[in-house]
Specification:
mainly alpha; 10 helices; 0% strand; CMD-like; peroxiredoxin activity
């Protein structure tokens, strides 16, 4: 895959604003491990290898197990996720695929049962943020770090 555009180089001020916004969203009250699961699940749906690489590594650094990371795309069929995690993952899927789902009432009811109103807003902003990062990385074909290493080795 060839990178289409280096977004930071092309629009550093806009990119800096996105980084600052993202940093503020990452400081929300929702536990870090759950934030990473949400970022991984949205990135799986959007096919963002760069973001998957980053967020699976971050999840591991913060104690997430390999098994839960591997089973995340099939979370509905696994008992490894808590009711709170399941509500967040359902909301993540509903909003990441909002044009198809319309954010179903059932997903919102599960969200309401597990999250305070403030946390609902925070989680929704987190989902919007990771979807924006996915669109930047997929749209501009940001090269996955392992692909970059492989290309450098092949050229040597």
């Amino acid at each position: 895959m060839t990178e289409r555009l280096n977004a930071f180089a092309a629009a550093p001020e806009a990119f800096k604003a996105m980084l600052e916004f993202s940093a503020r969203i990452n400081a929300i009250s929702i536990e870090h491990g759950l934030q990473e699961l949400v970022k991984i699940r949205a990135s799986q749906i959007n096919g963002c290898a760069n973001c998957l690489h980053m967020h699976t590594a971050d999840a591991r650094k913060h104690g997430e197990t390999e098994e839960r990371i591997y089973l995340l795309s099939a979370w509905r069929e696994s008992l490894l996720y808590t009711p709170r995690e399941r509500a967040a993952l359902g909301w993540t899927e509903a909003l990441t695929l909002v044009a198809q789902t319309g954010a179903p009432d059932a997903d919102y009811e599960a969200l309401k049962a597990a999250f305070t109103p403030a946390e609902q807003v925070e989680l929704t902003l987190l989902i919007g943020t990771i979807n924006s990062w996915n669109r930047l990385a997929v749209g501009f074909r940001t090269v996955h770090p392992n692909d970059r290493k492989a290309a450098a080795l092949a050229a040597a």
